[in-house]
């Protein structure tokens, strides 16, 4: 019994070694399985990384493909629909942007190159559609649409706001004495003469004699109107007197613009079909173009010359301007500038830049010529100027 009992007590000790070995083997297998799983996951991770890189590369190539510029963009026409007032307003807000005045000659020439190359089917590397349109509007702001020549800086539409706000503000501040009226009306009409010549329609130059006649006539008309109205309003409300410069400017525009563009009235402006094929020159089209520009210019000046007088008439009664009277001119300039920022593009947008009329309204001999050479043409187009 004792021996048997002792043998039974020793058996667990004898079996403990194989059990430990078995446990160790099982643990090792589990570790190996886990390591294999981790290795497989790592391989899969690398595959996912490679896949992600491939997908990213494909995405980048897709992005590049989608931003690749089209060769069929019509940059001869504005970016926005010119058949609607809103489309024209967006166009002219871009063209008359005063910041365009600050562009360097290098930036202008670069825009000129981009547009010229694109028209010939050559595109700059990496050029996007937005960059192309930006180049077009820089080009349009500085180069004449008919002649292609670089326009005089102060004659560009982008210079209208800074130049007009200064001149108009001073005209409306210094209007009470004859020397002041003569000086500022002369400065204003000199500026207008430059603008009207710079933004004329057509590609035929004016002679020095024609330029001189237009300039002297417009300046004389504006000064005479201003002095005459000043004399009439001496015994009337000061507020009415403040509106005299506006009346003089309106009268001068009716004289200056037709005279600066008198060659167009005599010989006509170029007219084309819808595909820009030149059909001839029309004096009837010139009359429509010039009348539209006169209306636009008068309305353009209206807010800046009609609203500030009412405000200044009130402000000058306040203690601030009584204490600092020299602030009248700067305040008036700022008020005029604020009005012109909106009035300039919106009034330019009243009529399409590329105006049109029916063939039946043209001169009889031009109608006959078009019907013979281009029988299908019912409407002609022309640049009305600005």
UniProtKB/TrEMBL annotation:
<protein>
    <recommendedName>
        <fullName>Sidoreflexin</fullName>
    </recommendedName>
</protein>
<keyword id="KW-0496">Mitochondrion</keyword>
<keyword id="KW-0812">Transmembrane</keyword>
<dbReference type="GO" id="GO:0005743">
    <property type="term" value="C:mitochondrial inner membrane"/>
</dbReference>
<dbReference type="GO" id="GO:0140300">
    <property type="term" value="P:serine import into mitochondrion"/>
</dbReference>
<comment type="similarity">
    <text>Belongs to the sideroflexin family.</text>
</comment>
<keyword id="KW-0472">Membrane</keyword>
<feature type="transmembrane region" description="Helical">
    <location>
        <begin position="331"/>
        <end position="351"/>
    </location>
</feature>
<keyword id="KW-0029">Amino-acid transport</keyword>
<keyword id="KW-0813">Transport</keyword>
<dbReference type="GO" id="GO:0015075">
    <property type="term" value="F:monoatomic ion transmembrane transporter activity"/>
</dbReference>
<comment type="function">
    <text>Amino acid transporter importing serine, an essential substrate of the mitochondrial branch of the one-carbon pathway, into mitochondria. Mitochondrial serine is then converted to glycine and formate, which exits to the cytosol where it is used to generate the charged folates that serve as one-carbon donors. May also transport other amino acids including alanine and cysteine.</text>
</comment>
<keyword id="KW-0554">One-carbon metabolism</keyword>
<dbReference type="Pfam" id="PF03820">
    <property type="entry name" value="SFXNs"/>
</dbReference>
<dbReference type="InterPro" id="IPR004686">
    <property type="entry name" value="Mtc"/>
</dbReference>
<dbReference type="GO" id="GO:0006730">
    <property type="term" value="P:one-carbon metabolic process"/>
</dbReference>
<feature type="transmembrane region" description="Helical">
    <location>
        <begin position="294"/>
        <end position="311"/>
    </location>
</feature>
<keyword id="KW-1133">Transmembrane helix</keyword>
């Amino acid at each position: 019994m004792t021996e048997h009992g002792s043998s039974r007590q020793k058996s667990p000790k004898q079996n403990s070694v194989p059990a430990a070995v078995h446990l160790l083997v099982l643990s090792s297998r589990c570790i190996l399985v886990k390591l294999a799983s981790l290795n497989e996951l790592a391989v899969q991770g690398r595959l996912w990384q490679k896949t992600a890189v491939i997908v990213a590369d494909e995405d980048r190539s897709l992005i590049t493909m989608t931003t690749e510029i089209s060769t069929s963009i019509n940059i001869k026409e504005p970016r926005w629909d010119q058949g609607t007032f809103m489309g024209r307003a967006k166009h002219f807000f871009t063209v008359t942007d005063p910041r365009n005045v600050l562009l360097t000659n290098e930036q202008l020439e670069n825009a000129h190159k981009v547009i010229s190359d694109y028209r010939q089917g050559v595109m700059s590397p990496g050029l996007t559609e937005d960059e192309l349109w930006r180049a077009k509007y820089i080009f349009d702001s500085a180069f004449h649409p008919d002649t292609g020549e670089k326009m005089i800086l102060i004659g560009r539409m982008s210079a209208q706001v800074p130049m007009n706000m200064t001149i108009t503000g001073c005209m409306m501040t210094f209007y009470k004495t004859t020397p002041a009226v003569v000086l500022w009306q002369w400065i204003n009409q000199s500026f207008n003469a430059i603008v009207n010549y710079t933004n004329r329609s057509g590609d035929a130059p004016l002679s020095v004699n024609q330029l001189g006649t237009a300039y002297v006539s417009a300046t004389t008309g504006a000064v005479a109107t201003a002095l005459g109205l000043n004399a009439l309003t001496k015994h009337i409300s000061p507020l009415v007197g403040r509106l005299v410069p506006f009346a003089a400017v309106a009268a001068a525009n009716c004289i200056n613009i037709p005279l600066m563009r008198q060659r167009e009235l005599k010989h006509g402006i170029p007219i084309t079909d819808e595909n820009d094929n030149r059909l001839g020159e029309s004096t009837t089209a010139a009359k429509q173009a010039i009348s539209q520009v006169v209306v636009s210019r008068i309305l353009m000046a209206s807010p800046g010359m009609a609203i500030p007088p009412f405000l200044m008439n009130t402000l000058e009664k306040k203690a601030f301007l009584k204490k600092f009277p020299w602030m009248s001119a700067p305040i008036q300039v700022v008020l005029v500038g604020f009005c012109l920022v909106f009035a300039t593009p919106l009034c330019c947008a009243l009529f399409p830049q590329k105006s049109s009329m029916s063939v039946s309204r043209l001169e009889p001999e031009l109608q006959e010529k078009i019907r013979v050479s281009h029988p299908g043409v019912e409407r002609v187009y022309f640049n009305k100027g600005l």
